[in-house]
Amino acid sequence: MKVFLKLLLAGAVTLAITAPSYAGKDFDAIKASGVFKVGTEGTYPPFTYHDATNKLTGFDVDIAREIARRMDVKPEFTEVKWDGLIAGLDAKRFDAVINQVGITPAREAKFSFSIPYTVSQVALITRDNNNSIKSFDDLKGKRSAQSLTSNYGQLAISYGATLVSTDGFNQSIDLVATGRADATLNDRLSFLDFKNQRPNAPVKIVAQQTDASKSAVLLRKGDPELVEAINKALQGMKDDGTYARISEKYFGIDISK
């Protein structure tokens, strides 16, 4: 019995010693390498896309760069299609996904999230001459252009739509504009930015969800120190006005509210 108790105590001591080192291992590796590896699409304007010079830019990209700066490391971006971002995080190809990832119970069960950094609404978008879809309920039996594993795709399915697989926002809009899909569910802010760039595009918003969705930095579980460091960076941006400046650069408003 005494031997058994000694073994239990030894095990408890071992756990107490090793747990803290595990808790911060990702953050420790980031600080040691001096690089914060970020997964993003690069095809989702105005959040993450390539400008006229082919430079990766966008709201989320600027947020990621500022997070890295405040952690005193350099950002390194890996561009992956939406459907591969979460798998890439699992496979440790990058330290975080910063790509308008919505907070959902299913994702919270497997991953950690930072505090939210955007609040947005889902828009139902159709071709401008489509009068058969006026509400989300009208999606039943229709073709909706979506990334298959996105929140928008799952929402479209819940309304009875059949999904037409796409690589991202631009392709979804193009499929709707050319009649190869009846509609797409997408971010209202992205659509407004798109129409600002292409005012004559034959697409329109016919309905919006009243509930706002929140997006945050997606991280692997098990490293509260990294979550805390990112939260500190995000809160610092909001407190000193940096976030508002980035937001106004792309949207003309502070989208955190």
UniProtKB/TrEMBL annotation:
PANTHER family: AMINO-ACID-BINDING PROTEIN YXEM-RELATED (PTHR35936:SF19), MEMBRANE-BOUND LYTIC MUREIN TRANSGLYCOSYLASE F (PTHR35936). Residues 35-254 form the Solute-binding protein family 3/N-terminal domain. Residues 1-23 form the signal peptide. SUPFAM superfamilies: Periplasmic binding protein-like II (SSF53850). It comes from Xenorhabdus innexi. Belongs to the bacterial solute-binding protein 3 family. InterPro entries: Solute-binding_3/MltF_N (IPR001638). It comes from the Bacteria. This is Periplasmic solute-binding protein. Keywords: Signal.
